[in-house]
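Lab notebook page, bench 4
Experiment: in silico fold of construct C2
Operator: M.H.
Input chain length: 756 residues
Purpose: comparison with the prior construct
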Amino acid sequence: MKRPSSPIRLPRLHRGLLRSASIVSLCLLSFFGWVSVSKSQVQPETLQQPLLEQSPPIAPVKNVSDTLYGTVVNDPYRYMEDLSAPTVQTWMKAQNDFTRSILDRIPGHKELLDRIKTIDNAVSARVFDVRKLPNGLYFYIKRLPTDNTFKLYVREGLTGKETLLFDPQVQAKVTGEPHAINYFQPSWDGEYVAYGVSAGGSEDAVLHVIETSTGKEVGTPIDRAQFGGVSWLQDNRSFFYTRLQKLEPGADQTEKYQKGRVYLHTMGDDPDKDKVVFGLDVSPSVSIVASDIPFVSTFPGCDYALGLIAHGTQNEVTLYVTPIATVGDKNASWKRVCDVEDEVTSGSASGNDLFLLTHKNASRFKVIRVSISQPDITKAETVVPAGEAVVANFACAKDALYVQVRDGVIGRLLRVPLGGKPEQVELPFDGSVTLATMDPRCDGALLFMAGWTRAIQIYEFDPKTNKVVNTGIQPLGEFDMPQNIESVEAKVKSYDGTMIPLSIVHKRGTKLDGSNPTLLYGYGSYGITQEPLLSPRFLAWFERGGIYAIAHVRGGGEYGEDWYKAGYKSTKPNTWKDFIACAEYLIQNKYTSPERLAGMGGSAGGILIGRAITERPDLFGVAIPEVGCLDMVREETTPNGVPNIPEFGSVRTEEGFKSLYEMSSYHHVVDGTKYPAVMLIHGINDPRVSPWQSAKMAARLQAATASGKPVLLRIDYEAGHGFGTTKKQFQEEMADIWTFLFWQFGIPGFQPAAEK
């Protein structure tokens, strides 16, 4: 369940729109707070007993037993999958109220939350997803200290007049639900902007168009536009977009992401009369099935359109090309550029050149080039050859191709002049580097850079001066570059001898005496890399002696395709075994002890943390599964289950079932086991991982654990998978997590008096 597009940039050709956690190490942002909690109906002052003297509500057992390929699979809480059932809703709300009553009574909670707010508000603005046009206009989303959500702005030059284009808070005041901008795309001349906005973390975006000069909305909003995929045509008044099918009442939930199609919309027209131009049953020259998600992309100055077919969450895509003028014609001849076996993961065009990123015979990827008018991948020219560093991304500019490579977790930038050889660009510091969404009519490149001890700053490379300079678009906050925090890179030997990178961040001068509160985070899916990035909010953790460690486990993309496929389907156990090895390293090297070590994973990282504690419950004092995949045997029955078959497998095959059963934490909980303290976190509107996964796991752990430690379920009724979470929700969730950890770690100032 990869996260949606990063708040920094939208993936080229919409790669990964069905996945969850994040690019540029933005899966790390899962811990920065994806979901929060509705205020409890139970007031703390009504609870006079010591913490845990009361118990969370017990879930009735109604076992369903299936036999799959000779294996008996018991499911005692299958009924929770019907989230509309009154008994399930009542139980979940009672669980959440109990969790709220516990957290609110822990001393230090308010002080910690206040400190997080102070740090958060110390910068004058947070800016993400910057787009630069040749006419000097910059479009971006920004949040001021007084804002709860990001807003859409346009600016004339780096220092020119700034204009607010759209404020989601206006809709929030009308509906009472938080709203968020999912994506935006200005027209090529900048006169219009198309954007998607959704409510309550649902990601069910409605597409709007506004006029830049006036901010007035143009035409009728378009629903079912969750993926957007907006690509403008040269007339700057029409665009292609992807729209999901309209489901009839009672339709199976697994149909949600099936049979999506690409439409052509002209501003002012009725969206329900828009012409279908690409997708299932549209063109006889295009091979596509119901579970595929289609997109059409255009590029300024290019007369051809690219048709992209995303096969669920699979990284490899299928690409077609046709003249833009023929798109939508009944007999349009789409030429196939590449298919899955060509192992192309993304592409972009400039003029007559089509550049492709592929791992065909190149585990760490390479960039190749073909003619967009006469594409023949068998005759492709290699532009950036495979090497020791992973080729992670690229973007076309007017002067050159800019290529983002990664040496372990450290980002580098290459410039490839048109017709020239790659040359390395000197960067201001070592850290993560992410290319912004670029316009091939502009020279140079916009970059987002960060480090384990540096918050994101926005830089620009100018080919005329050959220098990378800070644009100043992102102001430097008081806590954005702390001098008293340091990071260490280690290599840990896993169970099979593989060396696993481990990044460790802590306050300078921290004594390694085994007593430090430590949070170990991991993800390990979809080939996503955990790259260096500091959230200043983390200072509230470091200030109290906390250590933060990031395990770069197999299943991620740190070392390319081979590293990814070593934690994938049948090899998935490597992911949590690597995580366990990193936990053992932190203990052996006196960073912490089992009593003060917490493990955390979000979304697909729920597999990692869930299986880590079911395999080695003795190794952790606390575990935090966040919007986690915890019942993988039943994952395929969810709305996002079918698109994720390429990543995890299917129960419809024996091999697939065996892999899914092995990675299913819910089915590895054993009665009478001393499990660590656990807090499961979920948003009720989650479109990627169904909330019942956390509910079922909470019920199972509560019934099974013999440790006497709490198992809490925290539900936010105004959030989803994390996209669209407000600043207030971020802050509250972070305070809740750290309060829970400090309480369970026995840290002074967080111990209720009744328990002394």
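Observations: The chain is about 15% helix and 30% strand. The longest strand covers residues 454-462.
Next step: discuss at group meeting.
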